[in-house]
Structure formats: C-alpha cells, structure tokens
Write a structure and sequence with these properties.
By secondary structure, the chain is an all-beta fold. The chain is built from no helices and five strands. It has a three-stranded antiparallel sheet, with no helix packed on it. A two-stranded antiparallel sheet has the order 1-2.
Length: 58
C-alpha cells in the first residue's frame, strides 16, 4: 500500500514490533510528528494533516 501510515507499539527491551494498526493511506494521514494522546477508554488520538484520527485495539 503506497504511503501507508501505521500506529505501532515496540517492546522497549527488544525493539521488536508487538502491535500495529493501519491508520490510513495517503498524505492526509501524515501526522508530521504530532504526539499520540491516550484517552480514558484506551483509544489513541493522533492529529494528522486531514484532521484527528482515533485508533482502537478492536
């Protein structure tokens, strides 16, 4: 998938990828190094060029 954007979790000890979720594809999903904010419900919120994205585990 060209220009795909993912939220990825790494194991702090090994550096291995332990979780990854496709957020979207294309330039509107570029977060330009914006912070990830965690909500009370466990969702992750990321500001992207096209607006705000909410990422959940399921």
């Amino acid at each position: 998938m060209p220009d795909a954007w993912y939220l990825t979790a790494l194991d702090v000890r090994t550096g291995e990828r332990v979780w990854s979720r496709l957020v979207g594809s294309g330039p509107l999903f570029n977060n330009h190094y914006a912070p990830v904010t965690l909500g009370r419900d466990g969702s992750a919120y990321v500001g992207v060029v096209g607006g705000l994205v909410r990422i959940t585990d399921s």
